[in-house]
């Protein structure tokens, strides 16, 4: 009991320290470009935290999370620009609607084995993308929403700068992490982890495995939707392009790179991949002048394969393991040289 | 009062009949042992009762309710817990967390509660921890609560499985070869734990090869051979049953 409270306290103080660092960062980094990259990292972190819950704890891969991200963005975009709905209500509507969509399509899919879910979510991603492209009257088609999306505001405070938006996005992202952490350390989280340990034993203890997997799937879709809404009000213009298959794959890569078993994994994974994307945008045209975005895919694919081979538990766990191995080797050489 | 009634239970895998037209019943508060040579259908019987697979024929009535063919997690909800012949510990969890999963059906926190753990959820969580620690204390593992489960030695892991199953607070507990692999001290501990569970009102059905232990603790014994019931009775009756002696116990010393 004592150990338990001690662990909990350690977990909480880590979260507090980390939050403080994040909220102090924009006072140190005043460059607008860097700030905007940090905002995007925050938005993607929200999606990837949800995806990690699904992949790390329910053991299911979703190749369609960009669709949920897009559903949130478009619900917010359309409701606020065309129908003048309050942005906050639109965001909530997007989250609830997207969660419902995930629940309904997840229900039949979760009766099947793992790979079918990946394929079905891949299909969902493609379908949503096609709808965004073709429903021109509603979505504006390939060229995007014609009316501009309003900025978010809290009371009289309009969040129209990177600096102000940074705080909103990161407060939501931190909340997302804390709430996901709550789930992991709850009855539901234990039930999900027990499925990984031994599905046979989990069922013998009354764990309805399918039900819990489905719930987490819907929750992770809601995370993506909220991130989409935040994205729409940040960029204030949306087109189908950022909500395609490439983005879905990118989310999976971020989740895997960061590692699925730690709540800090998503931030690390998203940061590494986002910074790398920005760097590649600079570097690739210098090496291959006529190159388009496709070359990024090659690099991401390479990273994914490398991580899978050398750090299968992701960077967060991988770095810890590497450090321990290094220390062990050092101790041994110290011993032998001492003799 | 009858807690479990098995009638005409049959299970065939392709052409192999693992359990054949088996009928017996279990009184509340009893300790019953299922014995029989390897391949007699003992574990298959356990898997049928706990819903791992449905029977080919026959019925399972628990507490007056038809439990035939229900999925495993529904059976657990009815109040039947089990341990496994081959350990099924959750290796990705601590000792305490393993037992806490056992309290799954005894707690109600849903996804909303998990995301926003308000007062009642935290109270329930504390209750789950308390109950789980109590179950660990019962099997003598209280001081190992925070250790990673796979780090426990084999005998301790078997006790952990019993604690985890007991955390379900079942009416019926199925123990699949609980004494296998235990040394004599551990077997003594096991016997005491089984008595303790019985005293708490849990009815016990166990499969066991250790005849000394079976004869000591069982109120009633069912002997299986090739999926058929060969005999049923008290340890005294079984030891003096000519058919059993010739078919199975012939070489055993008592």
Protein described:
The complex is a heterodimer of chains A (339) and B (254). Chain A is mainly α. Chain A has 14 helices and two strands. Chain A has a two-stranded antiparallel sheet. The longest helix of chain A has 27 residues. The model of chain A has no long low-confidence stretch (mean pLDDT 85). Chain B is of the alpha/beta class and 254 residues long. Chain B has ten helices and ten strands. In chain B, the strands form two sheets. Chain B has a six-stranded mixed sheet with strand order 6-7-8-3-9-10, sandwiched between helices. In chain B, strands 2-1-4-5 form a four-stranded antiparallel sheet, with helices on one face. In chain B, a hairpin with a 2-residue loop joins strand 1 and strand 2. In chain B, helix 3 crosses helix 5, helix 3 packs parallel to helix 6 and helix 5 packs across helix 6. The two termini of chain B are 32 Å apart. At the A-B interface, helix 1, helix 7, helix 8, helix 9 and helix 10 of A face helix 2, helix 3, helix 4 and helix 5 of B.
Tell me the CATH topology of the domain at 2-79 and 170-249 in chain B.
Rossmann fold
> Which class best fits the helix and strand makeup of chain A?
mainly alpha
The proportion of strand residues of chain A reads under 5%
Helix content estimate of chain B: 25-40%
Mean pLDDT of chain A, rounded to whole units? 85
Report the principal-axis shape of chain A: globular
Alpha carbon gap, first and last residue of chain A: 44 Å
Number of contiguous helices of chain A: 14
**Residue runs with pLDDT of under 50 for 5 or more positions of chain A:** none
Strand order of the largest sheet of chain A: 1-2
The CATH topology annotation of chain A reads as ABC transporter involved in vitamin B12 uptake, BtuC
> How would you name the CATH homologous superfamily of the domain at 2-79 and 170-249 in chain B?
P-loop containing nucleotide triphosphate hydrolases
Question: How many E strands of chain B?
Answer: 10
Euclidean distance between termini CA atoms of chain B: 32 Å
Radius of gyration of chain B: 19 Å
The pair of chains with the biggest contact is:
A-B, 31 and 43 residues
Could you name the ranges of chain B where pLDDT drops below 50 across 5 or more consecutive residues? none
CATH class of the domain at 2-79 and 170-249 in chain B: Alpha Beta
